[in-house]
Amino acid sequence: MTPNPDSDFERLRQQSHDMASFPRAQASRPLWIFGCGRFGRDICAALTGEGFEVSGFIQTEPSQRCLHGRPVKRWNELSSADLTAQLAIGIHNREMPLAHLEKIARAAGFSEVLLPWHLHAQFEHQLGWRYWLGKPELITNRWNELEKAHAILTDEKSRECLRDICRFRLGMHTAYGHFRHETRQYFNALTLNANTPQVIRYVDGGAYNGDTFLEFACLHQIGQAYLFEPDPDNFATLQVNIQRSGENVYTVPVALSDRYQMLSFSGGHGEAGTIKPQGSTCIAAMALDEFLPTQCVDFIKLDVEGGEIAALNGAKRLIERCRPTLAVSAYHKPQDLWEISLWLGEHCPDYEFALRQHHYNSFDSVLYATPRTTS
To answer: Are 156 and 3 in contact (CB under 8 A)?
Structure first.
């Protein structure tokens, strides 16, 4: 029997109403942090700034023995007294499933484990933007928008993905952190099929070091390519990596947005640069409609660190004129989960929409929009 999407979504809504509130770190008790990376260090700063006692850090294989004046211990070095403390999971990335990290902590003997969404909900002001992390109300107060986004999705696999991401981010389905679709990111059966032009004109928003373009070039013939990358370090690497790709590949050192403007940008030492008011440098941004006022393109990939809606707004005329296939990252902000679907549903009539999950912990979720073929 085919599942009823409406009843499935209504069941999710009801489950969220019945869920318990997020646990909170208690300032009256000591706390250890699992992980010594950027997120773990920032958790330490947030906690100590609020008067918490941070006993130290835990790493499976410590690369250092002291961090911020606190010990860094292996699991087998913890005392029975240490294990009565609270434990904060200070790891938040796409590589390590949170359910696995929680399992390690509980197997070691910790009974009170705080996951990244618990910590961010409590210390949102101190931690700031952290990809899709946010208070549960960001989802539970947006059921109407989420229901519309759910209805826009064409296939049940996509609708199930949306429901599972919601459950995961609400702390109701931690095991989903292990899940990812096996399909290739961006270039897969959803975007490359019998109706794909033999030679594709391609736009890459957030080209990073050229890895995505080079992957695509191995899979399909590319006529013209426009690669946009605002981070100066990434752009320098991009130029080196694609220098033998031909004269029809254009690298552009700007961000994509809804208009020409200067934006404050914080580099991420790789992939995690983002646009934010207190950025360390300024970058130029422009709209695709301004850059390609008359040309047509067949495929647009956007992974622009939270600027996806602005970039889509800046490409309205191009999308209407060319009806390209779109692959849009939908995980940088909590609201991307519904806002990008709703934007595409409004501005891309006669398209099919799919959602796929390409890395752990709901990172690298991508919204695919493909024009329906006309008979």
So the answer is: yes
